[in-house]
Design goal:
The protein has 398 residues and is of the alpha/beta class. Helix 6 packs across helix 13 and helix 7 crosses helix 8. The longest helix is centred in the C-terminal third of the chain and has 22 residues. The radius of gyration is 20 Å and the shape is globular.
């Protein structure tokens, strides 16, 4: 991971937070640790020193602030949130340096890892449905991020539609293509080990998760895997199909890390961007989209155009903070991270446009990026789409 030089940045609070963390005091930067730090914390810090030298003492201050969480022996929601944010910004460096904070890709359910071993899977899900929904989170987040304001799309779909929901956790700092390839392999194992014969698989993906889903599906199809033949529906929530202008200059990091009080001290890393983040400049899906190029240099969109998968019902939701159509808010700001056109797959080049059917798109007005995870009107749209697709599949089968 080659890191660009970073100018000094003043410490500031930066605003909003995730409602899941409401009521928790905002962490204030403290003094950098002195002397040597031992144990797991010392190993973690030692493996990030290359970044610290470029960022300056500010990063030491951020790590000192978060030291009690990073050094915890047992997982906690607060620690997991910080580690997810750190992986989003520096995940490729953590992976390359063998840092124990690098998040391995895993399937999860009810906050616990889910094995693809057939016997362990059957024990973990004693009453599995024949309909599987996989939920894939976005940048700097983890599977716990689907729980927002007392609502979880996956749990609600289980309640209302009788599906079984499984969640993906992954290192969002790695290239999208790397995560896509690993997802393709992991989902093939899950489908092969599912305790009952599967009728269909659906994917609900938020933000970067939609790019990982598209990359994984293409990789699995090229490899002749079985699970793409069972995939019936993909719902993209605020996915930057054609990138986000905030990636330039580190603004995307600054915005993404500001949603949680636990990750705000890391916002001083705004100009250091992982491979996953630079993939969001244009929406890279494959290794060929970035290989052999300096990812920090400005260049045009050189991606290979990838159409939506055939025989799969694809839906897209774009959020925008603007309450009326056609304004600069839709074009540039969108939901605060992703412009409306990018979320709906629209592009000035017709060859790159993703042809979502009009009835399979929706613009959620007056909402931000994370509102897509918890607003009831978003869930209702999601529920209706998946319910209708299940009915259509049943009619075809009969």
């Amino acid at each position: 991971m080659r890191l660009p030089p970073v100018p000094a940045e003043r410490t500031g609070d930066g605003g909003g937070h995730d409602d899941a963390d409401a009521g928790t005091p905002v962490l204030s930067p403290g003094r950098a640790p002195t002397g040597r730090t031992g144990g797991i914390t010392g190993f973690v810090y030692g493996n990030i020193r290359g970044v610290t030298r470029l960022v300056g003492s500010g990063f030491d201050t951020a790590l000192a602030t978060l030291s009690p969480l990073l050094g915890e022996a047992k997982p906690s929601a607060r620690r997991d949130a910080v580690v997810a944010a750190l992986n989003g910004v520096l995940g490729d460096h953590l992976e390359e340096s063998g840092n124990p904070l690098a998040i391995p890709m895993s399937l999860r359910r009810e906050g616990r890892p889910l094995s693809t071993d057939p016997h362990a899977l059957a024990a973990a899900i004693p009453a599995p449905s024949r309909r599987l929904v996989l939920l894939i989170h976005g940048l700097c987040r983890n599977d716990a991020g689907w729980h927002r304001k007392g609502h979880d799309h996956g749990a609600a779909l289980e309640r209302d539609l009788g599906v079984t929901s499984v969640y993906l956790r992954y290192n969002t700092g790695l290239h999208v293509s790397e995560n896509g390839r690993e997802l393709a392999n992991l989902l093939e194992k899950l489908v092969a080990s599912w305790p009952v014969p599967l009728k269909d698989v659906s994917i609900v993906a938020h933000s970067m998760g939609g790019l990982v889903a598209r990359s994984g599906l293409s990789c699995a199809t090229d490899s002749g895997y079985a699970w793409p033949t069972r995939l019936r529906t993909v719902v993209f929530l605020g996915t930057p199909h054609h990138g986000t202008p905030l990636e330039r200059g580190g603004s995307l990091v600054h915005a993404a890390l500001g949603v949680s009080p636990y990750s705000r001290p890391l916002r001083r890393l705004g100009k250091i961007r992982s491979a996953g983040i630079t993939d969001l400049r244009h929406g890279n899906l494959f290794q060929a989209d970035w290989a052999g190029r300096d990812r920090f240099e400005r260049h045009g969109d050189v991606r290979r155009p990838v159409p939506l998968p055939s025989r799969v019902a694809c839906f897209a939701v774009a959020a925008t903070t603007a309450k009326t159509a056609g304004g600069v808010g839709d074009r540039l700001v969108g939901d605060g991270l992703v412009p409306v056109a990018s979320a709906l797959g629209r592009h000035a080049d017709p060859a790159r446009t993703l042809p979502f059917l009009p009835e399979r798109t929706w613009i959620a007005r007056g909402m931000g990026h994370l509102d897509l995870l918890g607003r009831p009107e978003v869930y209702e749209r999601l529920r209706q789409w998946l319910a209708h697709q299940a009915l259509d599949a049943a009619r075809i089968a009969n």
